[in-house]
Amino acid sequence: MNIENTQVQMRKGILEFCILHIISRGEVYASDMLEELTSAKIMVVEGTLYPLLTRLRKAGLVDYKWVESKSGPPRKYYTLTKEGGDFLDGLDQTWTELVGSTKKIIANKNTKKKA
After folding, report:
1. In a structure prediction context, what are the per-residue pLDDT tens digits for the chain, which is 115 residues long?
2. What pTM value is reported for the model?
3. β partners of residue 29
């Protein structure tokens, strides 16, 4: 089994959660999301980010608006919808539970079962 494949799958599993958190802070441009995700080592490439943003928009969780740019074409800025905020609240609760459960399991790694 290849550890790198598992690591990639773990990062992919939390990608949507992280993107929604980034957008929840206010209007954000896709390249800024990409930069933050890359610097946090969650990493993503444009070919992964844009389809996910489209899926989130179609699900009604995010919206966008076009903003004129002084240095090029207009830019698409993303925001969280009310439904997206509610969805993120649910994910936050799940994340907290998962982190707690995972920590509990990891803490027990040196404990041996007694028969």
Report:
1. 899 888 888 888 899 999 999 999 999 999 999 999 999 988 778 888 999 999 999 999 999 999 998 888 999 999 999 999 999 999 999 999 999 999 999 998 766 665 5
2. 0.86
3. 77
